[in-house]
Amino acid sequence: METYGVGAAGSLAQEMNDSSRVGAVSLDGNGFHVEIELLETAAKNMDELVAGQDNSELSELPGDSDSYGHSGLQAALAEFCDRWSVGLDALCDRATRMSYSLGEAAKAYREADQAGADALSVDPGIDVVQPTTIPGMSR
To answer: Which among 6, 56, 90, 127 is placed 20 to 30 Å from 101, CA to CA?
Structure first.
C-alpha cells in the first residue's frame, strides 16, 4: 500500500500511524492511503520557506573588500554567494512548483471525497441492517 502525505517532523510512518490525530481526513483506496491535511500542511510549509527567502539576496552578503583586509577573499566570497544565490533561486522555484502540486492534489482528493459523500446521502446498508421485514420471520 502506498501512502501519500508529509509529516512536519519528517517521520511519515509515525504521522500516518498517530492515533492522536483526531478528526484528520484521510482517503483510502485500492492500494493507497492519503492524509489530506498532511498534503495541505506540506504545501503551506513550503510556501512559508520560499517566502522567507524572498528579498534575501546572498550577493549583498559579502560587503566591500575593506571589511576583509584582502580583496581576493572578498571576491571569492562574492563569487560563492552569487553562485549560491542562483542555486537558492532554483530550489525556491522547485519548492513553489511542489507546493502548488501538493495543494492541487489535496484539493482534488477533497473534491473526490465530497463527490463520494454527495453520492451517499443516505446509508445504502441501513435497510439490510435494520430491515422492516425479514423473509420467513414474523416480528
So the answer is: 56
